[in-house]
Amino acid sequence: MCARSEAVELEVLGAEGSEARVPPRPLRLSLLELLGKLVRRDQPAPSHRRAKHNHRFRTFVSCENERRIKANNREYNAQFRYANNYIKTSKYSIITFLPLNLLEQFQRLANFYFLCLLVLQLIPAISSLTPITTAIPLIGVLALTAVKDAYDDFQRHQNDSQVNHRRAKTLRNGKLVEEKWASVQVGDVIRLENDQFVAADILLLSSSEPNGLCYIETAELDGETNLKCRQCLLETAAMGQDDAQLGAFDGEIVCETPNNLLNKFEGTLSWRNQHFSLDNDKILLRGCVLRNTSWCYGVVVFAGKDTKLMQNSGKTKFKRTSIDRLLNFLIIGIVFFLLSMCVFCTVACGVWEWLVGRYFQVYLPWDTLVPADPTWGAVIIALLVFFSYAIVMNTVVPISLYVSVEVIRFAQSFLINWDEKMYYEKTGTAAKARTTTLNEELGQIQYIFSDKTGTLTQNIMTFNKCSIAGVCYGDVVDETTGETLEINESSEPLDFSFNPEYEPEFKFFDPTLLDAVKRGDSHVHDFFRLLALCHTVMPDQKNGRLEYQAQSPDESALVSAARNFGFVFRERSPNSITIEVMGNTEVYELLCILDFNNVRKRMSVILRKDGEIRLYTKGADNVIYERLKATKGDVKSKTQEHLNKFAGEGLRTLALAWRPLEERGFAEWKRRHHAAALALHDRDEQLDAIYEEIETDLLLLGVTAIEDKLQDGVPETIANLSMAGIKIWVLTGDKQETAINIGYSCQLLTDDMAEVFVVDGASYDDVNKQLAKCRDSIRVVNTFMPHGPRPSDAKRDEEPNGAVSGRGANVKLNAPAVSVVTFRWEHNSLAHSNEYVSGGAHTSEPHEHANDDSNGFAIVVNGHSLVHCLHPKLEEKFLEVVLHCRSVICCRVTPLQKAMVVELIKKSRKAVTLAIGDGANDVSMIKAAHIGVGISGQEGMQAVLASDYSIAQFRFLQRLLLVHGRWSYYRMCKFLRYFFYKNFAFTVCHFWFAFFCGFSAQTVFDEMFISVYNLFYTSLPVLALGVFEQDVSDATSLQFPKLYAPGHTSQLFNKTEFIKSTLHGCFTSLVLFLIPYGTYNDGLAADGRVLSDHMLLGSVVATILIIDNTTQIALDTTYWTVFNHVTIWGSLVSYFVLDYFYNYAIGGPYVGSLTVALTQPTFWFTAVLTMIILMVPVVSWRLASARARGTLAERLRLRQRWRGAAPAPRTPSARRARRSVRSGYAFAHQEGFGRLITSGKIMRRIPHADAAFSALASLPGKFHARPSSPPPEPKAPTQNLDTVDL
After folding, report:
1. Does residue 733 have a known ligand-binding role?
2. Which of 535, 578, 594, 858 is the most buried (most CB within 10 A)?
3. Helix, strand or coil for residue 842?
4. Which long-range CB contacts under 8 A does 117-126 form with residues at least 24 apart?
5. Could you tell me the pTM of the whole model?
6. How does the average pLDDT of the chain come out, rounded?
7. Which cellular components does GO assign to this protein (predicted)?
8. Which of the pair, 942 or 996, is modelled with greater confidence?
9. Around 136, how many Cα atoms within 13 Å sit in the side-chain half-sphere?
10. Is 652 annotated as a binding residue?
């Protein structure tokens, strides 16, 4: 059962999901209202509602929102219109696609703007341009986006179809019929078979296991791969697999409405005039997998969108990048800039027409719509000119911008998909960009929220090392040199084939342990005998092969290790355990199981064999050491050294101990134990006290070390991402101790940290006090050791040039195991220069200093404490603490809590977040974050289907962010800066020309040139820039993670950079227009022909504009490919080809103008003069900036150009040593199967159980006296990061 605090947590978090038809409420209001509901629920039910039954249960109080279900009665259930089992995650159908998609697209401000512009161009009186100039680009944008949206939705339709077409066996008229999942309805009785996914949330009716038990794996729900036990009512279990009885089952279920509480279910079953209580232990949830159970039957309670899995999946949100949001803001500013120019031209036109224009009506007649009165005529003309200039200068808000952005993102997505360095050969899985709209956001990630199980770890527990009687086993030592050899893929594992029950996948490399087993070392035999006896694992025969069912993967690994070394756990009954030791059978009488819980942190069994009673115990090393008998000798101290060594390597440790018991003393203890077990009040406390009495004076046997295998490259990836300034939070459903262990293994937690806080209070006041204490500790450390190590350490580790070496800067870095990015070849310049022109990674936050906002703190928050941390009154205090911490680990959290934590950071920090996971329990977190990354792991494909990007291994995340994300952001920013520059340089020419044409909305350029300028003449070079541009190589991006820092503060494109680009464009347009105008005004050719005509001026300005654009993008390009050369120089050539083709072949109005201009020396002089005036300031500014305030990327390029490849920083160690003594124990996070075993409910009927007891005395295998422990073998000194001078 859940603790009271966990009940509070689940009640609070499930608020919004329990009332599906109510509009979403603010989270804070929902929390406060539900606290009141929770209090009312705990009140006793009215007496007339209490069900009378010989079983004791909590009455379910029905309400107006209750759900009533009759089994095998579709007609009755149809009246309530419950959701069917059909799943739909797609957005469109064939009929609704066009209207809905157009509606969505026109919600984008730019699209709506161009639609209005197109309508204006259809009015001849105000339009000086043909509507085609706007219609073609607008239709192209809408069509391209529609195709992309249709493809994405088609993928969702395919995924939905795959799930809905899974097969399920349903009872129809007493016979099993195979149907699609989508056809299953509430009230149907379905049959599940072993290793099959549960189709819907069902009430368990019967199973193949004794007493109606079944085992499930809930990895899709909570990420845990250990088995969980469910048990149906004994009354329904009697139906077995009789289809006739199950088909006639007509029980009525009254239960709660659909909600997202995974660990809570309340209801009653009425059947045969009796009422039965229903709770979560009788429910199998959709997404679970049936394990080690041949078959089971259940009645569907929730189906489809009402299932708890779907209730926890969260809503799919439309995600936009920060650049998209900035562009929307900038476009509003551009529109106001356009309107201001139009207003200016309108006023100027009215003044000109009133002062000058009315006298030239013979040459410039007014339109018939214009009144003859000079004043009103000037006003009307001015108003019409306003709309005319809005059309003429509309290219300042280019629709081609959105076409280009979509094309660039689409191409970048393919570069991610085609990256062979993110291809996982083992499973044949490549990285995949499942969306094409978020690529540049990958270069701005500030917070990563990661699942643990299956994301950081492999979900594989392996018996790695052990210490027995003071002797350490597991290291492979070179016999000649005495050095410890590193175990890798080429290492040869031991051969266990002598054991017929060995497992081929089990690997151990130290031959000394196997030799000790074979020669009969009593200490080693006692050690493995304890592992084979002290557990709650259940054996099972599957296809003639012995398999184990364990609630904890740790227990399974230990029993498996004993099995492979020849100590095979065979079977158990409620009163006996049978093992096989080196081929000889041993049967032990099981007297008592002292089960594990999170308070005791240990478990024990009491066994009798040959008249001798022994207690075997295993548990956390600190708990076991407190209960050891005071003895002489150095076994305890040596074992403690080994414990520290194992913990330092990130292994999960358990201590093993035993003690003999006297018959009389045990009988007295057993009597008191029986009385405590029957107590009506404080039963758990009394049992704990009884357990304490007997678990004393223990004798140490040894310790085990299990490796919860990390995925390859996890520590290095986390270290590099931390160096890039990214905060990493781990949100896991696993228990606290396991999460902390993994934190140390992957270097999120280290001994170099000032302090690791643990917040595990069960009440609001407790959590408040703990947070206050954490905050005070942070203030004290920051006061006496601000932003770095102790002064003495800093002085000792400071190099002559002022750079801080890696060993002394471990408090200051985000990744203590990695050297800071102060390179040997550029000490002072790189250490103290701004990372980029606008200030490197510095932010305006007072508690953030450079790339590190902590003095090395970490915090671990438990799930029931997190409920209070997210309370509105504690939210600010919680944020104040966690934002000062380098690492944050939240354990025992629900899927909805994960999403709430992500939303909290998004809301409070306005930071770009990324969530990564591999199970259905991560879906809500993935949907809540700005970027969702799914890992194709062992927990199914739910996370991948909900994600924006999918990868096969966590280590690929650093390449996805530091390479593709950074490149995408860099390219997009460079593209936008150039795009706005060239468009302002092009459009504002019309504004300058207005001063010389009476503000009549006359265009400088040919209409065709205006139409195709952004589509043909300048589109391909900038697209090549946005797709292929690189400032540094991928290897350099990974070697120097600090290159990622500019994205955090949007340094490469922001409002300031936009203003710079637009001012540059306005200056260019001014020079482009005034110099040719001054040259050609009243100009004559050598042969006396007049050069000052409008078409010639337009051709000259257009040609110099194209040359300027080509030169500018050539200067901006740092990574030249064939595509860049073809597009840049090809666009310049295409301008002349298309101009001649249009004017000569089609008969354009500007025919001959460009030809005349090119044949005159005046043009070439004008072009050279204009380009010099435009380019000299640009080149000078860039050279001066690079020399005075060069970015890190520029310095790296300079280094590589002049001195060869840059040296790579030191890569982090795969295993960081932990010097402090701490428990690394690992165990099941729930109670074991102890009660079920001793009660006999979990057992199959054993025909000859009594005969087994009678044979106890006759079987060999007595306990042996323990000889003195042999001296440990000499070993070469080990080296780690603390002893080796890097």
Report:
1. yes
2. 535
3. coil
4. 117/390, 117/391, 117/394, 120/387, 120/390, 120/391, 121/391, 123/387, 125/367, 125/369, 125/384, 126/384, 126/387, 126/388, 126/391
5. 0.71
6. 79
7. plasma membrane; trans-Golgi network
8. 996
9. 11
10. yes
The radius of gyration of the chain from alpha carbons, rounded to an integer in Å, stands at 37
CB count, 10 Å around CB of 592? 19
- DSSP, res 89: -
- 832: pLDDT strictly greater than 70: no
The answer on pLDDT for 1265 being more than 60 is no
Q: Which residue has the tokens 């666009």?
A: 1131
Per-residue pLDDT at 1139: 85
- Residue 1256 predicted with pLDDT over 60: no
Please report which helix (H) or strand (E) contains residue 298, including its range: strand 295-302
Q: Is 618 annotated as a binding residue?
A: yes
* 40-49, 425-434, 545-554, 850-859, range with greatest mean pLDDT: 425-434
Grade residue 941 by pLDDT with cuts at 50, 70 and 90. low
| pLDDT at residue 970 tops 60 | yes
Instruction: Find out whether 394 and 335 touch, Cβ atoms under 8 Å.
Output: no
Strand positions, DSSP E, 1102-1154: none
DSSP string, 1073-1092: HHHHHHHHTT-B-TTS-B--
Q: Is 892 labelled as part of a ligand binding site?
A: yes
Segment 712-720 shows an average pLDDT of: 90
pLDDT value at position 24?
Answer: 43
Q: 1034 catalytic, yes or no?
A: no
Tokens of 126: 């105000």
> Any known ligand binding at 1238?
no
The verdict on whether residue 451 carries a ligand-binding annotation is: yes
The interaxial angle of helices 1019-1028 and 966-994, nearest 10 deg, is 160
- Residue 537, phi then psi, degrees to nearest 5: -70, 145
Please check if 732 is assigned to a binding site: yes
pLDDT at residue number 964: 94
Q: H or E stretch including 710?
A: strand 699-710
CA dist 1095 and 1079 (Å) reads 15
**What residues contact 283, with CB distance under 8 A and at least 6 apart?**
201, 202, 203, 204, 230, 265, 301
The pair of three-digit structure tokens given for residue 991, joined into one six-digit string: 């504004």
* pLDDT value of residue 998: 85
766 labeled binding residue:
no
Beta bridge partners of residue 885, listed in sequence order: 857
- Tell me the per-residue pLDDT of 376-391, one tens digit each, with 9 for 90 and over: 878 888 888 888 888 8
How large a percentage of the chain has pLDDT more than 90?
33
Catalytic residue among 451, 510, 852, 1031, which?
451
Give start and end residues of each alpha helix (H) in 569-662.
621-625, 635-648
What pLDDT sits at residue 1028?
Answer: 93
Q: Measured between alpha carbons, how far is 797 from 803 in angstroms, rounded to an integer?
A: 9
